[in-house]
Each structure stands twice: as C-alpha cells, then as structure tokens.
Task: inverse folding
C-alpha cells in the first residue's frame, strides 16, 4: 500500500528494529517499512517521512526519543553524508551488525537457511578504527571545493583533512590541497575533476602498530590528478614537478586527461610497490588494490585457510587484480591461473611474479566469463577456485563455467554481500555446491560496506 500524500513530511514516532544493507535503520509504520538513516535498532525515534516508494518509505531522523546504548558521538561528523554512515554506532556493534546483515542476506537471497556466518573480524582492538585507508579519491567541484561526494547528490563536502586516510597520507592530502588551491586559484574547479592519493603503507611497516602509527612521516605515495574534460592546464609538467616536492614520500605524480581523454603527463614513478605479509606487489595508478592494509593481511589469511591448496593442485584466481591472492596461492599450489580484465593490473601481476621469484603463476588478460569458457574448451583442469569480483558479483557465464569445471572448492571473496548471496544461490542450485561458512572481515570501519570470504565445497567432496 502506498503512503498517502498527507503522510509525506508528517512527523511520527517509531521503534527501530533492524539495520539494512545500505546503512539505514529499519522501522515500521502502519505495517509499512521505513528506512531511517542515522538510526540504530532498539531506538525509539521521531522521524519525518520524506519520500515514499513502492512498499516502503524513507524518513529523516528528527529526534532520538530513546537512544541505543550503542550510540556514540561521531568522530568526524563531516564524513557522515559522504561515506561514514555508521560512525554513530559503537565499533563493536558495527561488527555485530555486519555479521547479522550477511546472515540475513544469505538466508533470504542466498537461500541458505542454515548459513554459518562467523563473527566479523574487526580492526585490532589496540588501534582506533579510523585513518585506516591507503587510498582515497577526492572530487573537485566546479566551484573549486575539494572533498568527498555527498551520497545521493553531485555536491561535494569540502574537506581540509580526512579522517579515513592514514595520518601520513592525510598530511599529503592537506599539502596537496593547499598547493592546488594556490596554483589554480579561482580556476581550480574548471581545471580539475578529482585528486587521488594512494600510498604503500605496507612498504614502510609490517606491524599493526606501525601501519596505524601517526609517527610515520613518509609513505611511498602516488598522486593522480584528473583534469576536467575540455580544460587546458598550462604546463602540466611543471605542476607535476612542483607537486613531487611538496610532501615527503611522493614517488610519482600523474595528470590524466591533459588536453583530451588519453593525454597523460607524469613525473617520477607510474606505480607503487607495496608489501603484504612479506610479499611485494606492483600497483599501477589504474590497478585495483585493497584499501585497508591492516585488514588485507587478515583477508588473505582467511582465504588461504579456507582454500588450503595442496602441492599438486591447479588453482584459479578469478578477478585477480595485481595478483594479491595468486601470490600466496602459488606458494602452496602447483600452478595458479590468474584472470583479470584490467591491462595495467595484468602487467603488475607479471611484474609481481618476478618480484616474488615465482614462476608458477599464469596471468591471463580478459574477462573471467570469456577465459573460463576457453579453459573449459581446452579441457584445462582447475582443482580449486578463488573469485573476488567487483560489487556487481560474478557474471552468470562465469558461474556457469565454474559449475561445469567443478573445482573441489570455491573461495568467494566479496565486497557486496547481496551479490555474494545471489551468486551463492546460483552455485548451490541443483545441489552442486554447498556453503560451508562465511567470514566477514571489516575492511571498511564506520561504513555499512562489508567484505566477506565464503567457502563453498563441491557436493560429495569431503
Ligand atoms: C575487487 S577487485 C579484486 C582484485 C584482487 N583479487 C585483489 O584483491 O587485489 C576486482 C578485480 O576484478 C577485475 N574485473 C572486473 N570485471 C572483470 C571481469 N569480468 N573479468 C575479470 N576481471 C574483472 C577488476 O579490474 C579488479 O581488478
């Protein structure tokens, strides 16, 4: 039943009972579902309905009538509407809610009524779950503000510091921001579209305390500026040269789309070399790499523990990026076939094999759906598979090929539990695979985003 028009903009009191994937608290009003950003289950709140959609409505929080004991003061309120939707929830509760959401999705979408979901592995207790990122993209608005895009809007939240970036990279951000404002003045918004900062934190420290430390002053850093289409930056080389010297640790400055889509100017290196659990990885500006260095090690350990490749086995690493999982799989297995569609990441994976003295990884460039069908046609054997797709999940043809090639186990690493659940439903249909367990790993504290590793085994395999 749609809400009556009179109910929009009306203020009502509701009990919040759940949290949805997407971050909103959930309540009910006259039998209909209400989504309330900023609420916490267990709270009684006064809200104003602002939007009605088929079967549900969205409401703004006006007043908290009975707060949850899990409510905390946001550390960076300016980030609430640009990504940190859960900073009003105490960190231990964020972890509990993430596991609850994964379980709910696996039951409902994944059709796994008995899904075993382990408690979320959070950031180590001795560090604050902030300043954890090695990578951030800051948008430049046409008015010259620099910061994060606001959710469901094209506006930019102007930020002069960033509570999500590692302290050393936040320092770089602040210096770069001032430099760009000085350099371009009033024309900043006409000239630039975004500024990306990416640092190799694992290259300067391997311990948790070290990786979180604000005493690290110089993290090897790449700075990537995207020129606004149609803009004409005068002497981009000089700008890149000047940016190279403004903060310790900057190893390369890249300006993209200078004078057109393919124009690229760079000074210094075009890539970083990062370290995870003692292995080295080359990461180019366009290649994907995990953004939370402390939790990346945990993710790798979880996936390796679940899959446990044997010496004689051939392992598929699907959506392999620069070869993060391939590298660890290759130390245990006979061979790893690494499939990745982004050319720069495939080149990085090749370079990474050399850096780590590994000769049993075969990086293949192309989509997993296409390459798997070729491998199947050539009757290649795959004993185990790891897949780590983007948020959209696996292509249906890739899932179909996996079912046909029937590896004894599949480790599915996912950054979106709703597509994970959908793909698990497909893989388990027809009783071909069964879900053993899912393990959420918190890569994105203060946000509703959930990383999860799930193990599926072929039915009939011990
Ligand atoms: C979530 S990232 C995972 C990368 C890597 N496993 C890691 O942890 O660093 C997903 C990767 O899949 C790649 N990709 C996207 N669509 C693809 C497709 N259809 N086939 C193969 N790779 C794809 C992206 O370029 C990206 O590198």
Result:
């Amino acid at each position: 039943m749609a809400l009556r028009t009179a109910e929009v903009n009306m203020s009502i009191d509701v009990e919040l009972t759940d949290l949805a994937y997407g971050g909103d608290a959930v309540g009910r009003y006259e039998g209909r579902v209400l989504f309330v950003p900023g609420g916490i289950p267990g709270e009684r709140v006064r809200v104003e309905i602002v939007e009605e959609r088929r079967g549900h409505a969205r409401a703004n929080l006006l007043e908290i009538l009975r707060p949850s004991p899990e409510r905390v003061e946001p550390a960076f309120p300016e980030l609430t509407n640009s990504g940190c939707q859960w900073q009003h929830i105490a960190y231990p509760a964020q972890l509990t809610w993430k596991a609850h959401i994964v379980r709910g999705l696996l039951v409902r979408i994944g059709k796994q009524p008995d899904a075993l979901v382990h408690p979320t592995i959070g950031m180590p207790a001795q560090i604050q779950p902030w300043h954890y990122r090695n990578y951030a993209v800051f948008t430049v608005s046409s008015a010259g503000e620099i910061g994060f895009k606001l959710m469901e809007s094209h506006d930019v939240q102007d930020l002069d510091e960033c509570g999500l970036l590692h302290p050393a990279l936040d320092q770089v951000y602040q210096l770069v921001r001032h430099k760009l404002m000085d350099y371009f003045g009033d024309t900043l918004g006409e000239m630039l579209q975004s500024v990306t900062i990416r640092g190799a934190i694992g290259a300067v420290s391997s311990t948790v305390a070290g990786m979180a430390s604000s005493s690290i002053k110089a993290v090897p850093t790449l700075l990537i500026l995207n020129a606004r289409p149609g803009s004409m930056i005068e002497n981009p080389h000089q700008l890149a040269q000047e940016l190279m010297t403004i903060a310790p640790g900057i190893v390369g400055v890249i300006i993209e789309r200078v004078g057109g889509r393919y124009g690229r100017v760079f000074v210094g290196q075009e890539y970083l070399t990062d370290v995870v659990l003692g292995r080295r990885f080359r990461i180019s500006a366009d290649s994907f790499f995990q953004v939370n260095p402390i939790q990346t090690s945990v993710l790798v350990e979880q996936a390796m523990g679940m899959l446990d490749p044997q010496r004689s086995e051939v392992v598929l690493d699907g959506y392999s990026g620069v070869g993060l999982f391939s590298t660890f799989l290759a130390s245990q297995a006979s061979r790893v076939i690494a499939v990745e569609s982004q050319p720069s990441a495939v080149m990085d994976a090749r370079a990474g094999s050399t850096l780590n003295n590994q000769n049993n990884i075969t990086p293949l460039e192309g989509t997993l759906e296409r390459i798997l069908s070729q491998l199947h046609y050539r009757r290649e054997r795959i004993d185990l598979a790891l897949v780590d797709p983007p948020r959209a999940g696996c292509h249906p043809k890739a899932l179909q090929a996996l079912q046909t090639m029937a590896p004894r186990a599949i480790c599915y690493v996912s950054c979106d539990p709703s597509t994970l659940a959908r793909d698990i439903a497909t893989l388990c249909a027809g009783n071909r695979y069964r879900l053993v367990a899912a393990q959420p790993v918190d890569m994105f504290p203060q946000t509703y985003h959930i990383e999860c590793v799930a193990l599926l085994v072929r039915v009939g395999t011990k």
Remarks:
- The two ends are 49 Å apart (CA to CA).
- The chain has three domains: 5-71, 107-123+292-458, 135-275.
